[in-house]
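G., the chain you wanted modeled:
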Amino acid sequence: MATVTVGDARVHYDRIGAGPVLVLVHGTGSAGAELTWGQVAPRLADRRTVITPDLSGAERTVDDGSPLTVEGLARQVVAVIEHAGADQVDLLGFSMGASVVAAVAATRPDLVRRLVTVAGWAHTDGDEYLRNLFTLWRRLGAVDAEGFGRSVTMTGFSRGFLNAIGRDEVEKLVPNVPPTPGTLRHVDLNLRVDVRHLLPLIQAETLVVGCAQDATVPVENSRALHAAIPGSAYAELDAGHVAFFEKPDEFVKLVRDFVL
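Predicted structure as tokens:
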């Protein structure tokens, strides 16, 4: 465990494994990197140094509680990379984290060798599905914690996956992303995401990963990211939003093959 100060934030990050550095950036939720990457990071660390930062809004990173911006979170990722002593890294971001890593790659091309975005999107304004979903989460978070958890679970995983694991396991998923103040700060940022102006600036070799059954960020958003990032490659997993839970073997192989 390590921490680095970035403005008013004391940013926590973990580091495991050995070899070239791979940084994994989480999405929405105050549990941050631990919940998102707990199953995936050890599998990738058999041949890489894997660094998993907790962005502001996550429980293990302390800050002043002010509204979040993509640019501010990107600065936190940059600070973690520099604090860890890495000259250049491979960088992967999931969901909200996809916007953050896109901003890092666009503004600090010297730090990023290869870039992977998973289940990401370029902008919320103008996408009525995303705007309404995140608005619903914000309102549920204020009045109905269980309803919030059920909505996140329902859209986070494919129908087939939820039915396959059964009711008892689904009920265990519901409280995994509670509407804490940190989580709701992430949701508020989701409503304001717009990285369209940064995407043409990305120079790193890039893989955009879409999730064919994604009901949180529909797969068309990943396809649009691919179209907007010059020279990017595209892959699609037949899974819901949290594809690395549903298809962990396929996800790990896809990442490994790209960042070799």
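The chain has one domain: 2-124+194-259.

Shout if anything looks off.
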